[in-house]
Design goal:
The chain is α/β, with parallel strands linked by helices. It folds into 2 domains: 2-193, Lambda Exonuclease, Chain A; 207-269, no CATH class. It is built from 9 helices and 13 strands. Strands 2, 4, 5, 6, 7 and 8 form a 6-stranded mixed beta sheet that branches. β5 (90-100) and β6 form a beta hairpin. The chain is globular and about 60 Å long. It starts with a strand and ends with a helix.
């Protein structure tokens, strides 16, 4: 992938981004790679030498790396440990931020917006797969936490409803039964190694306004997920309601997917 600098960042930022120390080791997949949409993962591998990314879109990785590095030096327990295991002959790795006794913690440097919504399903799956790796390597995990560091937190908004009181927000994560973790990781391995790649789902594509609740009487409302639409209907005390699929806005495809130019699904929709 070519790193560009179209917006004039100082050269030191380019060097830092190029030197970003990520590696899945000698594994076939990392945990985060398995959680990625299989079509995106395959297209990245196929077109890697033709992809471009600007330093402005990579800078958040540096912030995350810096926070991890500082916290690593002050935490009790085992930090930044990369573990390996196999599922159906496929080698999988994951880097654990912190394992303290039987408690596993992962740090996320991201927007305050993520703390105002339900727990990100990918985050929940990621930590449960890390727990799987720990137990595959002879350890034990009894609890999981994500600690969100909000890079855009504003103190003056801390008294607003739903806004976090601090830029440091611990979020407990449900620990799945071991059987569920094994089933989930086997399914992710299966879809990533299948001969035919599955198209991206609405969730993969960050679809917005994919469903409309038609209400009689009342005003129709649009929702991103079917779960949100159903929850809205369940809150209504009168009238009749139905859900219909509508053409959503695909936020990721329109501006955030590195392989959109090579994607048969997205490109095939442009002429519709």
């Amino acid at each position: 992938m070519e790193l560009t600098n179209e917006y004039g960042a100082p050269d030191v930022f380019l060097k830092a981004v190029r030197g970003h120390p990520y590696s899945k080791g000698d594994a076939d997949f990392s945990v985060t790679g398995l959680l990625q949409a299989p079509q995106i993962a395959r297209l990245k591998k196929q077109h890697w030498n033709h992809l471009k990314s600007d330093v402005r879109d990579e800078i958040w990785k540096l912030l995350g790396t810096g926070v991890h590095a500082v916290l690593e030096g002050h935490a009790s327990g085992v930090t930044e440990m990369r573990l390996f295991s196999e599922c159906d002959g496929i080698k999988i790795s994951g880097a654990i931020d912190l394992i303290d006794g039987t408690h596993l913690t992962d740090y996320k440097v991201t927007s305050v917006w993520t703390t105002k919504r339900d727990l990100n399903p990918n985050w929940e799956a990621q930590l449960n797969l890390y727990a799987w790796l720990v137990e595959q390597n002879g350890g034990e995990v009894e609890s999981l936490t994500i600690v969100v560091v909000c890079r855009d937190w504003v103190k003056s908004r801390a008294d607003q409803d739903g806004y976090p009181d601090s830029p440091i927000v611990p979020m407990p994560v449900p620990l799945w039964p071991f059987s569920k973790r094994e089933e989930f990781i086997a399914e992710r391995v299966r879809i990533h190694t299948a001969e035919n790649t599955l198209p991206c789902t609405n969730e993969d594509r960050w679809a917005r306004n994919a469903y409309e609740v038609v209400s009689t009487p009342g005003r129709n409302k649009k929702f991103n997920t079917i779960e949100e639409a159903v929850a809205h209907i369940n809150r209504q005390k009168k009238g009749s309601h139905s859900i219909k699929d509508i053409k959503p806005t695909y936020v990721r495809c329109e501006g955030w997917c590195e392989v959109a130019d090579f994607c048969p699904q997205w490109q095939g929709e442009q002429g519709e």
